[in-house]
Every structure is written in C-alpha cells, then in structure tokens.
Write a structure and sequence with these properties.
Keywords: Membrane, Transmembrane, Transmembrane helix. This is Citrate transporter-like domain-containing protein. By secondary structure, the chain is mainly α. About 80% of the residues lie in helices and about 0% in strands. It has two domains: about 1-105, no CATH class; about 105-465, no CATH class. It has helices at about 1-40, 45-60, 65-85, 90-100, 100-105, 110-120, 120-130, 135-155, 155-165, 165-170, 175-190, 195-205, 210-230, 250-275, 280-300, 305-320, 325-340, 345-355, 360-375, 380-390, 400-420, 425-430, 435-465. The termini are far apart.
Length: about 475
C-alpha cells in the first residue's frame, strides 16, 4: 500500500511540475508579446520560436477534443501552405498576428478576482429577493445578471451564476439553465472581453465604436426574444426561497450595486478611450485593461491581502489551464491564413454574392446557419468565423463592415449555445449535472428565432446605414 501511495504522490508531483512549466511558458510568451506590441521592441524570429516551443509542449496536455481539432487544423493548414507555395515570411506573419490571443486568454480571467472579493453576488441575491413575489421578474434578473457577469468574467461567470442561482436551479432546472446560458451568449455579441468580438474586430480591422452601439441593439433584441419565450413558462414557476440567502442591509446593497456599475462602465469606457488614443491592436488594449483593472479594483475595495491569495490560485490553477482554448483558437486563425492561399475563399465569396442578388436576408441567414451547423458538427466557431471574415468582402454582399461583424458575432454566440464542444456546454453539463441533449432541447428554439429575426433586423439597419 505504501508503494502504491508513493507512486501516486510521485505522479501527482510530476503533473504539478508539468503544470507549472506550462503556466510559465504561456506567461512568458504572453509577456514577451505584450512588450513586443506596446514598445515595438523584439525579434520576430525569437518570438515565433518561443511560440513554437510553447505550442509543442502544451499540445500534449490539451484535452482530447481540442487536441484533435488543433492537430487537424495544423496539418491541413501546412498542407495548404506547402501546396500553394506560401513564403516563409507569410508563415511567420500568420503566427505573429495570432499570438495576440495569448495575453487575452491569460489576462481576462483576472477580472473575476475583484468580483469574488467584492462579494457582489450578495447584491444580486438581494435584488432577486426583492422581486421574489413576481415570478416573471426573476428570469429577467437571472438573464441580465448572467449577461453582465459574463461580459467581463467570460466562462468564469458560469460557475458564479450556477452557485448564485442554485436554489432556482433546484426548483426549475430547465428554465433557469436557459436563462443563465442565453444570458451568457448575449454577452458574446457585444463584449470585447470575450474572444469572439475581439477576434472579429481584429480580423475586420474595426474599432469598438460604433460597433458597440449596434451590437447592444441586438443584445436588447435577444433579451426580449428570450423573455418572450420565458413568459410562456413563468406562470407555473415556484417562487424564490427568500430564506436561502441572507438579505444585506439596504445601504450596503446600494453601495455594492454602485461599485459594480462603476466597475462595469469603467471596463468598457476605458477600451473606448484607449482605442482612440493609442494605435494598438484592440486585443492588446483589452489585455492591458484586464490586468490593470483587476489589480486597481481589488485595491480600491481594500482587498490587497486576499488578492495575494487569489493570484496564487490564478498561478496554480488558472494560468496553466488556459492552453486548451487559446491554442485551439490560435491554430484556427493560423489555418484561416493558410486557407487564404488556396482558391477556395473566392469560391465561398462567389456563392454568397450569387444569393445576394436574390435576397440579402437569406444570405445573412446562410452565414448564421453555416456557423451554427458546423458548430453542431463539432467544428469550433473560430474556424468557420475566421474563414468567413478573411474570405468574404462585405462590400461584395452590399453589407457594411459593421453589420458583417454583427452577423459573425451573433453566429458565434448561437454556435456557442448549441455546440457540443463549446466550453459553455462542456463545463455547463458538469456544473449543472445535465446532459448536452437537454441543453440542446432547452436552447434550440431561442437560437432559431434569434437567427431569423436578427437576419431581418441586420438587413433593415444595413439599408439605413448605406442610405446615409
């Protein structure tokens, strides 16, 4: 027994050591790239070499599904590269451009730290308790809270929301699971702290303003579509158990709500301001704001000591585990660049141009449906979206760049909601103790209605934009 225990301990130590190396490599690569981007100082070959070493080491520690997708994308990408005679400079450029995602995935999880330290979940519970006698308002608060938290906490918001609304989930699992997940996906449409928006704006070379203005229109539209579907169910819902959480005193609740509002506005306002002042990649700006804001916010609420403990947890448990999605997205973007060497982008464009001459609504619905259908087949949204963003000239479709970006972000959001390999559904099935089939059954109706109505709205708004 002692020998078995010693072997287990030895294996655990080795895994911990490997995890520490993985975290160190990712952190070093992200830091080097930030310095390279901000100061314009650095050797391209050195950075690319560091990226290749980090990729090769982290690849073997990826989960099975992301590893398979990553492997296929790398192989096919290099087939395109060699077959169509790509230059070495093009290969290096494809890697350098996509390394911006490393600091993004490393920095955004830091934003969940002040959220936990500030105890803002109690404020949300207090608001729910206040409206507990009006069942229809409870899904509204759950949906809105999920969207708000996800907008800067990303996938970390799923665990917070699950813990926060545990009594509701126990009383009506299907209804409130939908509220949490649909709120999560609505934030994907507008928040640059989530990979989808940052990647799409990066590829299309768009600024956050006026994109954010139009994106919020569709978030509000999605909010009302979701509430309309909830309205059918709420009459039979049990009320929230007011004794499940302690209600904070009113002044403290107002203070916490004010802090949360200021923090939310500050996160998005700083992006808008810095994006206009500095000529940096939007992804780099988001990464820098996430780092500075998390430290500043924690200091302002006087949680410096607790912050040290949270950073230790970040170093041990979060930093080494961002490799799955970050490497998969980097390789998917790399693949899309290699894909541009082939004649296929022209074929894709010609198909959409052909249908544009008949119905623009149908073309937009085709784009959304393509992203969602490939997501259902297990292809990550980044693959389909990056190919479309790089292959389709929106002017050829009589579509403004902003509305094209909106189309892609909505497709990304609906693909995330329905995909069997999205982090939302993989983590959601474990946290909520439900099957993927249940999640699909609960959310497909919202996704279809959302795609149809937004296709019509995008066409109408696009007509107005082009007419001005």
């Amino acid at each position: 027994m002692e020998k078995i225990e010693m072997k287990r301990q030895l294996l655990s130590d080795r895994l911990q050591y490997a995890s520490s190396i993985r975290g160190a490599l990712l952190f070093l690569l992200g830091a080097i790239y930030l310095v390279y981007s901000v100061l314009g100082a650095g050797n391209d070959t050195l950075i690319v070499s560091a990226a290749v070493i980090t990729f090769l080491y982290c690849f073997f520690f990826m989960n099975k599904a992301p590893r398979r997708i990553t492997f296929v994308l790398v192989i096919i990408g290099h087939v395109f590269y060699f077959y169509y005679g790509g230059a070495v400079s093009y290969w290096k450029e494809a890697i350098l451009l996509n390394l911006a995602f490393v600091p993004l995935f490393l920095s955004v999880p830091l934003l969940s730290i002040p959220m936990r330290l500030g105890g803002y979940d109690g404020t949300i519970v207090t608001i729910i308790n206040k409206w507990s006698d009006k069942p229809f308002f409870v899904p509204i608060i759950v949906l809105g809270s999920s969207a708000l938290l996800t907008s800067f906490m990303n996938i970390g918001a799923l665990r917070v929301s699950t813990d926060l609304f545990r009594p509701l989930l126990e009383s009506s699992r299907g209804t409130y699971t939908k509220a949490i997940m649909q709120g999560f996906c609505l934030s994907i449409i507008f928040s640059p702290y989530i990979a989808g928006v940052a990647i799409i704006l990066f590829i299309l070379d768009l600024t956050l303003i006026p994109f954010l203005f139009y994106a919020l229109i569709f978030v509000i539209l999605g909010f009302f579509i979701s509430l309309f579907l909830f309205r059918i169910e709420v009459r039979s819902l049990p009320t929230w158990n007011a004794d499940a959480k302690t209600i904070s005193d009113e002044p403290e609740t107002r203070k916490k709500l004010l802090e949360l509002t200021i923090g939310f506005l500050g996160l998005f306002g700083s992006i808008i301001i810095l994006d206009r002042i500095f000529d940096f990649n939007l992804i780099i700006i988001v990464s820098l704001i996430a780092i500075v804001s998390s430290l500043l916010w924690s200091s302002l609420i006087r949680k410096k000591d607790e912050m040290k403990s949270e950073l230790k947890n970040y170093r041990k448990n979060i930093l080494p585990n961002v490799h799955n999605e970050s490497l998969m997205i980097i390789t998917a973007s790399f693949f899309s660049h290699m894909f541009q060497l082939s004649p296929f982008p022209q074929y894709i464009l010609s198909i959409f141009v052909f249908f544009t001459n008949h119905s623009q609504v149908f073309v937009i619905l085709m784009i959304l449906s393509s992203i969602v259908l490939f997501s259902l087949l297990g292809v990550h949204q980044i693959v389909t979206v990056s190919i479309m963003a790089n292959s389709i000239d929106p002017n050829s479709l009589d579509l403004s760049s902003i509305m094209f970006a909106i189309t892609l972000t909505i497709g990304w959001a609906m693909g995330t909601l329905l995909s069997p390999v999205s982090a939302l559904n993989i983590i959601g099935t474990n946290l909520l103790n439900v099957r993927y089939q249940d999640l699909l059954k609960w959310n497909w109706q919202f996704a279809i209605i959302m795609m149809i109505i937004t296709s019509i709205m995008i066409t109408l708004i696009n007509y107005i934009i082009l007419a001005l």
